[in-house]
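Lecture notes, unit on binding sites. The following record was shown on slide 14. It pairs a sequence with BIS(adenosine)-5'-pentaphosphate.
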Amino acid sequence: MAEGVKGIIFLGPPGAGKGTQAKKVAHFLNYSFISTGDILREEVSKKTELGALAKKYMEKGELVPDDVMLKIIEKKLKYNKKGFILDGFPRTLQQAEGLDSIFRKNNISIEKVFCLSVSEEEIIKRLSSRRVCPGCKRIYNLITDPPEKNEKCDVCNVELIKRSDDKEDVIRKRLEVYKKDTELLLNYYREKIIDIEGNGSSEEIFEKIKKFFK
Ligand code: AP5
């Protein structure tokens, strides 16, 4: 691990646009993009032992246990040599405390913590029409950001998929879990947090975020 690496954290409820914005920021700053959701979905699709364990929680909209998540992040950060963005981690107080200890061990500091907020009604709308490329993982939205060809990735030309946890009952459970476990982190990071109102086009939101890097 290089000395003095910095990390940016993205918080916010499911569907607030964390993945969309975190990817844009990573590209803009030339940082690594680390999404725990993507890591877990990859394990599920490869049918690994971790994937089998994660699937049980993910399909119900529940959180994968903290000790499992902390091991994944520790391993990922050990080999990371540049600035990075965390999308979807931490999600509980235990994860945030564990992350602090990983940061101390590896001389990493938190550069910024963004929190995106969007109304519940908008979240359901966004997630019900989200589609993802199984190849390059690009995120689309059939209403606000559709692919050029009918449900095929503009880059890979493969059929887009709907995430199995983007069903209304699972979305509601994920929102409940966010309120119960993850909202506590808004207080934990209160001195660093930058609130971003997430309504508006993804370009408009990105412009708001970019201002914090000038
Ligand atoms: P994860 O993949 O992290 O899902 P999430 O947190 O529920 O967040 P989403 O990916 O659903 O939403 P997002 O905010 O990234 O929105 P996006 O940019 O895609 O986690 C999935 C599961 O894995 C968890 O439930 C849990 O089981 C497990 N897990 C993951 N991390 C874990 C951890 N740390 N601990 C324990 N378990 C963990 O945008 C959504 C849609 O809206 C897209 O279609 C997009 O195109 C569209 N959109 C984005 N921005 C805009 C905009 N401004 N206007 C209109 N549409 C927009």
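Take-home: Residues 168-182 form the longest helix (15 residues).
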